[in-house]
Amino acid sequence: IGAFTLRAHPETPLRVVEAPDHHRVLIGDAFSTDERPVESLLAGVVPVGEHLAGLEALESLSGRFALLVLAGSRCFALNDAFGARSLFYRKAGGTAISSHAQLLAHAFRIHRRADVLKLLATPGYMKRPVKYLPGHTTLYDGVQALIPNNYVEATSGRMRRYWPCTPNAAA
Predict the structure, then answer these.
(1) Model-level pTM?
(2) What pLDDT does residue 68 have?
(3) Which pLDDT tens digit goes with each residue over 75-133?
(4) Reading across the β-sheet that carries 143-145, which strands appear in turn?
């Protein structure tokens, strides 16, 4: 799609909404909570410089999904506000986004982080009932998790909050 290669499992729902200078790719299951079709909601999400505009349309989307906005060599990525469909990205060495950090690590031969391995081995962490890492940290060097309710411009790694969509909330 444009300058990007998208690989997805054949059973994964995909919707592509094209515009002359960018594409929007919805991965997963999304449902409109009002009368507008999902594609018309996505059509309002557009890249404007380093930001995405029209994000208020996402307030009418529900489901478990990821959205990519591809414009030239730039890729904006976001997941549903709850983060039910996880996204991971790498900042260095070219844009790469995945549903699992391990896929990026395998594809790009990325090593595990010694400091995170040390944390995972501590008695306090091992006793925790939930094993999530803090913030956007992952086990792999240079791979970060996209925090729910944020979007990332993958080339720069700059994240912005997008919901609730109040004036200037994403700035």
Answers:
(1) 0.86
(2) 94
(3) 999 998 888 899 999 977 778 999 999 999 999 999 999 999 999 999 999 999 988 88
(4) 96-98, 88-90, 143-145
Say whether 154 sits in a helix, a strand or coil: coil
Q: Give phi and psi for 151, each to the nearest 5.
A: -125, 155
- Per the CB < 8 A criterion, the answer to whether 97 and 77 are in contact is yes
Please classify residue 1 by burial: count the beta carbons closer than 10 Å to its beta carbon, then call 0-12 exposed, 13-18 middle and 19+ buried.
middle
Distance CA 32, CA 83 (A): 17
Q: Are 151 and 159 in contact (CB under 8 A)?
A: yes
Considering Cα of 159, then 62, then 43, then 169, what sign does the dihedral take? negative
**Strands 150-153 vs 158-161: parallel, antiparallel or unpaired:** antiparallel
